[in-house]
Amino acid sequence: MNALLLFALVSAASAFYLSEQDEFHFKSWMAQQNKVYSLKEYYERLQIFTENKRRIDKHNEGNHSFTMGLNQFSDMTFSEFRKSFLWSEPQNCSATRGNYLSSNGPYPDSIDWRNKGNYVTDVKNQGGCGSCWTFSTTGCLESVTAITHGKLVPLSEQQLVDCAQDFNNHGCNGGLPSQAFEYIMYSKGLMAETDYPYTAIEGVCKYDPKAAIAYVREVMNITAYDEMGMVDAVATRNPVSFAFEVTPDFMHYHQGVYTSTKCDNTTDKVNHAVLAVGYGKDNGSPYWIVKNSWSSDWGINGYFLIERGKNMCGLAACSSFPVL
Ligand SMILES: *[C@@H]1O[C@H](CO)[C@@H](O)[C@H](O)[C@H]1NC(C)=O
Ligand SMILES: *[C@@H]1O[C@H](CO)[C@@H](O)[C@H](O)[C@H]1NC(C)=O
Ligand SMILES: *[C@@H]1O[C@H](CO)[C@@H](O)[C@H](O)[C@H]1NC(C)=O
Ligand SMILES: *[C@@H]1O[C@H](CO)[C@@H](O)[C@H](O)[C@H]1NC(C)=O
């Protein structure tokens, strides 16, 4: 079929006006992302991309604490995105009473573990697998191990994807850092990334305890919704794993302090786990500094800032970290 004719049909069917300029933006984005589509898919993705871009442009014209931008997800609908990158069902995230005891401060106004030494590994990429919980877990254990023993070694997410099911974890369909720390504690270790590399697919467990290089002696759960407990742990101890609810606008986050009125603040809605590596204040607005696992091309070199102090998107619902 003639491409122009198809274009007209697609446009007419959806009553969605696509200009030459929309197509120009889409083509530059495709080139930048090395994307190739079949003809049919091209027009589907062009439409989704254009809807996303309009949403982004509209947001950026407003007065918001964060901006949105095009990224590797710009040709996906939120429901496609959710299927590939977020938990498909609620996890058992509810340490109603945690075992972590906070001190009473005082706490520094800001802290960033990335600047305190060689304590945080490079941002990784979970790919199309809902394994964020494994990246939050390795990120935290990598940092705690480096702070304790002075050696920063990337750890294996794949071991957690393949082997941690007995602790209510579900590979590419979700899990919780607290449950992953429990698994590491009982299985007596986690292997290095290089010895058990990431494939983004659930496979047979190949854990070899003799090759373990990181250990957990105790799991610290911070009491649900005790955001000051998270501040205490990050200020006085190490980075902390937490989960929150991702809603459509977060997919397009570019930079600034993320805040939302669309997300929920309860344990059953959280759908993505990440790692708090610090916190600070911007013109009096407090925020967390967070390491994500969507590659360094997303957000602020793979990181994002999110409003602190209001349990934004349920971020204080289930936070935890390991003790060696
Ligand atoms: C933008 O929002 C900030 C914070 O809500 C407010 O202080 C500022 O006055 C607003 N600026 C404009 C131009 O509306
Ligand atoms: C939550 O915990 C219960 C009881 O241990 C378990 O049966 C269930 O599978 C868990 N749910 C998830 C999503 O892991
Ligand atoms: C911490 O959380 C994990 C998983 O959510 C749970 O199995 C464990 O019992 C909790 N630990 C404590 C000490 O409460
Ligand atoms: C969730 O938000 C509601 C409405 O703003 C608020 O009343 C409630 O205290 C919040 N719950 C938690 C656990 O933060």
From TrEMBL:
PROSITE patterns: THIOL_PROTEASE_ASN, THIOL_PROTEASE_CYS, THIOL_PROTEASE_HIS. The keyword Disulfide bond applies. Pfam families: Inhibitor_I29, Peptidase_C1. Residues 26-81 form the Cathepsin propeptide inhibitor domain. It catalyses: Hydrolysis of proteins, acting as an aminopeptidase (notably, cleaving Arg-|-Xaa bonds) as well as an endopeptidase. Keywords: Disulfide bond, Glycoprotein, Hydrolase, Lysosome, Protease, Signal, Thiol protease, Zymogen. The keyword Coiled coil does not apply. It comes from the Eukaryota. GO terms for biological process: proteolysis. GO terms for molecular function: cysteine-type endopeptidase activity. CDD domains: Peptidase_C1A. InterPro entries: Papain-like_cys_pep_sf (IPR038765), Pept_asp_AS (IPR025661), Pept_cys_AS (IPR000169), Pept_his_AS (IPR025660), Peptidase_C1A (IPR013128), Peptidase_C1A_C (IPR000668), Peptidase_C1A_papain-like (IPR039417), Prot_inhib_I29 (IPR013201). Belongs to the peptidase C1 family. Important for the overall degradation of proteins in lysosomes. This is Pro-cathepsin H.
